[in-house]
Structure formats: C-alpha cells, structure tokens
Amino acid sequence: MSVEADVARSLPDRLRSFLSSPRRARWAMLSRAMRRPPLLAHLVLFALIVLIPALLFSAFLVLQFSEQQREIAAAQVNDTAEIVSNAVDRDIYGMITSGKVLASSPSLANGQLAGFHERTVAALRTTETNAELIDPALGVVVSTLEPFPPTPRKSEYTKAIEQVFKTRRPMVSGVFFGARADRFMFHVAVPVMRDQTVTYVLVINKAADALDAVIANRNLPREWSAIIKDAEGRRVFAAVTSEGRMEAQRGISYDNPSILETLGARMSDDLIEASTVSSLSNWTTTVAVPNAVIVRPALRSWILLMSAGILLLLFSIMLGIIFGRRIAAPILQLSQQAEAIGKGEPAMPFGTDIAEIGAVSKVLAQASRERREAEEQNRFLMREMTHRAKNQYALIAAIARRAAKESANTKQFLDTLSEALSSLARSADLLAGSGWESAMLADLVETQLKAFGAGGSGEQIELDGPAIRLNSTAAQTIGLALHELATNAAKYGSLSVADGTVKISWSIAEKFELIWREIGGPTVVEPKHAGFGTLITQKMTSRGLGGAVEMNYAPAGVVWKLVAPKDAVIACD
Asked: Coiled coil where (predicted)?
C-alpha cells in the first residue's frame, strides 16, 4: 500500500478517533493540534494568507478607481462647462460680427434708413435673429419685424443699449421677456459711429431658446446637466443629457435657478459641478453630475469583488485540502529518507510529481559537489582580487615614484599623490557598481569632473558622444587622465575663468577616439618641461591603452586627443 494511500486513510481515521474520544481527551488532542498543526492546516492557512492580501489590494484598487473616477469626472465637468460656454460665445460673437457688418452699412452713413431696413431684412432672413436700430432717445427707428418706418415706440430692454451709448463698445444683454415676441430674448448691441459719436445702436435680438440648437449636439454622459445664467442670475438655458444629447428643460425657474432643478426627480445634494464665466457675455455656465452616477461603476466593482472574494475563499480552502493530501505523502517519504541518513544507511532518491520535493530528495547527493564548486569559485575570486590588487598597487607605485621625482617638497608630493589616489578611488567606486567589469564613459567623465562643474546647471563642461562602456583598465586610465586635464584647466586653462568652457567628445569607429578641447580660457603657453601631468595624460595613457596621445598647446586652448584600439577600451559583452 502506498504512502499517499496511508495518508488519505489516516485523515478520516483521525477524525473518527477524535470524535470517539472522551471530552478531556478531545481537548488535549485539539490543544496539541493547535500547537503543532498538521500540513493540511498550514496549507489552508497559507492559501488564506495569499488570498487575503490580494483581496485587500483589490479593495485598495477599487478605492483608487473610485477616487480616480471622481477626479476624472471633476475634470470632465470643468472642461464641459468651458466647452458649453465657448459654444454659446461663438454664437454670440457671430451675432456681434453680423451687427458690426450691418452697422458699417453706407446706407446708415448716408441717412438712408429705408435702404438699411431692406438690406438688414435680407441679411437676417435665414437666421433666427431680428434687428432694431435705436436712436439716442432709445426709440426704435428701424425694425426688421415690421415695414419701414416702424410704429413709434421705445425699445423693450435698454440696459445694454444705454451702456453702448456711453462706452461706444458692443454689449451683450441679459435675458428679458420680449412682449412683442412673447418669448425670452437676449440681444447684442453694436454702436453705429459717425465722427467718433454714437449716432445709433444696432440691436440684434435672438430668442434664448434658439441656443438649444447650439448646445444640443454636445455629447455628454447620461444624467449630466447644464445651466447658463446671465449676469443678473436669470436663466438663459438649462438642459439635462439623455442618450448622449442635451435636452432643454423648460420648467426651470427664470430668476436665479439652481443646477439641482435641472435634474428633476434625479435631484441630489451630492453633486460634482463646475462653473465658468464668459468674458464676452458675462454669463455663467454651470455643469453638474450627481455623485451617484460616478460611483455606480465603483459600486459594481465592490459587489463583484465581494462575490469573487467569497468564492475564492471557498475555492482556496478546497484546494488546500486536496493538495494537502497529495503533499503529505512525499513529505512522509522525505522524513523516512532523513531517518535513513541519520542512521548512516543509504538514502536513494525517490520519484515524485512535486519538483521541489524531488529536488530535496536529490540534494544530499549534490551537496558535496556543490560545495566543491563553491570553494573553487571562492579561490577563483580570490585570485582575481589578488590580480586586480597587484595591478592597483603597481599603478599607485608608478604614480608615487613619478610624483616624488617631480615634487619640490613633501607637501607637493602628498598633494599630487592624494589627487591621483582620489581620482583612482572615484573610478573604483564607479566600477564597483558593475562588479568591476565596466563603466559608462559618460558616467566616468561626470564622476571625475563633478568637482569642476560637470553635471550641474550652467556648466562649463560640455559632453558629446555615443553610449560607450569601458573596461576596468580603460576606465581607470582615462579617469586619471581626465582628472589631471581638469586640474590643469582649473589652474591655468579655460576652467580658471567664468567664460571658459571645455568640450569633451568621443566616437567609436575603427578606433576609439576621445578629444578634450578648451575654449575661452587664457592664452595657452606651452610648458618648458614635462612634468607629472605629462606622465599621466600622455605616457601612462598611451602605454596603458596601447594607443596614441596628441597634446596641442594651441594659443586659443589646449587640445588633447586620445586614439586607441577598440579592443583595449571597450568592455566585452
């Protein structure tokens, strides 16, 4: 009989034994199970531990989704208010433009009011507007709604007209009830000028409900509402969306209506709304949406999350029980194998369909081989570190010998050696970040020249070149040369003056090429003898990389050029 069958049979046997035991014995068994729960309990608990954070994270995502929905809705409401306001402004601006064109008619300039009447009637025939010409006494002298001359009367709404006579600028009126049209109207008033004097005011009238066609085509989500009020708080337009179109609401209060009225039965105090004031008409456009509309998707997500969570919990418990039985059998075999190892008996690996347990079964045979490989790897790393350390010591010794030879006193020697070691340390720090294998050239330049302005705002050092990864030897050699060049430039060259710059460029083709060019510094004078800097920037660099270095002490600025084989510079992939 297999071990797995034994495990499967033992579970109901244990349950029957637990139920048939006395109460005190059952409590003792339960206490032991709580102190050392079986694998089955651990797997069920593990399934819950894995699932619950996922459910909590999902709940967090739903909360974030709800908040984002509100933010998006607020932005959409604000944008929609501006879109609706702009649509109305375009219509009003068109009326003002038409009024200006008509106001400039030669018929008015010549006093031919009958001709002006005829032309204006023809111009406005296909529009939803009518026009009146108002004299300074606020009397109507021309009206497109009646033959010329009109019946003597005063204009119905004169507030904007009076402002035009005073300011000589076009004005947009608020909403008023036109007794002759029996409708709510608004108009634009345009001055008719003669010799810098307002002789008449041309009024273009339009019904407020004519704006329905201007706004109705705005595509909005369902249950969004909009209301436009004039400067005195009177309703110009009110609508609520239905099937993607804005439907005008006629039953809204005329004086100072609320955006809540547009929602009707869907009225809610919890709204997301935004308002914008037109600079052209001084009308206020308000767009709102009930918060309940925005939270509906989130509510559906919560319901789905809770339903899925309950199902997943039940499913996880069921899987824990099923797989607990399957895992318990090979674990029992592992314990038998470990017991055999403890007795010094051979422990042969056994086959199982669980890869991890099979790996544990084989790990004893593999342990010694893996340990030998680890020891060999450690020895290799130690040899590599020793080799690198020897190279570093040799380089430092060469620098120290040359610095001692070129230094006039101990302080100069220590300063020179300290700067060289600091440069090597910076290159080493950069290489350490990539396991001492390689470093990017641009990073090396910025690291070595950071103290001289590289990488800052308003920098005097300009870099130009492709992305190149240097090997460790090239990084240390070039880094040392760059630091020495920058030190000399800061003392005597272009970095010693505010207007000086250094351009560092590099390229890679058949060979690697790096150029240091100083511009805008003091006039360059070639040194009379080669010193420590010459050793670093020329001899050590060319020998270390197997290339050639050119040093040009041009009066306009030092130019240093390195040409080296690619294999000596570029890191291997």
From this structure: 357-384
Rounded CA separation 142/114 (Å): 8
Q: For residues 546 and 488, is the Cβ–Cβ distance under 8 A? A: no
Could you give the angle at which helices 472-491 and 355-406 cross, rounded to 10 degrees?
40
Q: Is the separation of the CB atoms in 361 and 350 below 8 Å?
A: yes
Q: 420 near 403, Cβ under 8 Å?
A: yes
Structure tokens at 447: 């690291």
Contact call for residues 517 and 559 (beta carbons, < 8 A) = yes
**Pair of tokens at residue 40:** 């089955």
Kindly give the pairing relationship between strand 271-277 and strand 245-248: unpaired
Pairwise CA distance, residues 30 & 65, whole Å: 45
Find tokens 């544990």 and name the residue.
360
Residue 5 structure tokens? 């069958």
pLDDT in tens, 528-566: 766 666 677 777 788 888 889 998 888 888 999 999 998
Do residues 88 and 278 lie in contact, with contact meaning Cβ atoms separated by under 8 Å? Answer: yes
As assigned by CATH, the class of the 409-569 domain is alpha beta
132, β-bridge pairs: 143, 203
Residue extent(s) of CATH 3.30.565.10 domains in the chain = 409-569
Bridge partners (DSSP) of residue 557 are 554
Three-class secondary structure of residue 113 per DSSP? helix
Helix (H, G, I), strand (E, B) or coil at 17: helix
Question: Which CATH number is 39-310 given?
Answer: 3.30.450.20
- Measured CA angle at 70 (ends 65, 74), to 5 deg: 145
Cβ neighbors of 518 (< 8 A, separation 6 or more) are 489, 493, 494, 495, 500, 501, 502, 524, 557, 558, 559
Residue 268 DSSP code: -
Q: Which amino acid is at 88?
A: V
Residue 527 contacts residue 501 (beta carbons within 8 Å): no
Query: Residue 7 — pLDDT band, cuts 50, 70, 90?
Result: very low
> What is the location of CATH 3.30.450.20 in the chain?
39-310
Predicted confidence (pLDDT) at residue 14 exceeds the cutoff of 60: no
Degrees (nearest 5) of the Cα angle 246, 251, 252?
Answer: 80
pLDDT tens, position by position, 267-307: 455 778 888 999 888 888 888 887 777 767 777 777 887 88
Alpha-carbon distance values, 90 to 6, 20, 179, 212, 379 (Å)? 85, 89, 27, 14, 82
End-to-end CA distance of the chain: 57
Residue pair 153/181 in contact by the 8 Å Cβ criterion = no
Max distance between CA atoms of the chain, in angstroms, equals 127
How is 30-92 classified by DSSP, letter by letter? HHHHHHS--HHHHHHHHHHHHHHHHHHHHHHHHHHHHHHHHHHHHHHHHHHHHHHHHHHHHHH
Structure tokens of 459? Answer: 């920098």
Strands (E), 208-266: 225-229, 235-242, 245-248
Asked if 128 contacts 145 with a C-beta cutoff of 8 angstroms, the reply is no
